[in-house]
Specification:
Elements (H helix, E strand, L loop, with lengths): L5 H17 L4 H28 L1 E5 L5 E5 L6
Length: 76
């Protein structure tokens, strides 16, 4: 797959879902669209996972130094 932006892939995925939901595609076209949708969903998931791994918070300790901590949501 060519280098894609997350936003572009997400838009393509949304368009594919809309076409599939309309139910007007032939079976072959539906299968092709579904396959492309799976690729876009996989790409988006990969990009989100990469972004999550890169997000870090710098926390200032009492002594003035900083410590890196992995980003976590409060409910984790």
């Amino acid at each position: 797959m060519a280098v894609e932006k997350f936003e572009t892939a997400l838009k393509k995925l949304e368009d594919i879902v809309k076409k599939l939901e309309e139910g007007e595609l032939s079976l072959d076209d539906s299968l092709k669209a579904f396959e492309e949708g799976v690729k876009m969903a996989s790409f988006c998931t990969k990009k989100l996972d990469e972004a999550e791994k890169k997000v870090e918070l710098l926390l200032k300790k009492k002594d003035g130094s900083f410590v890196k901590e992995a980003f976590r949501l409060d409910d984790e």
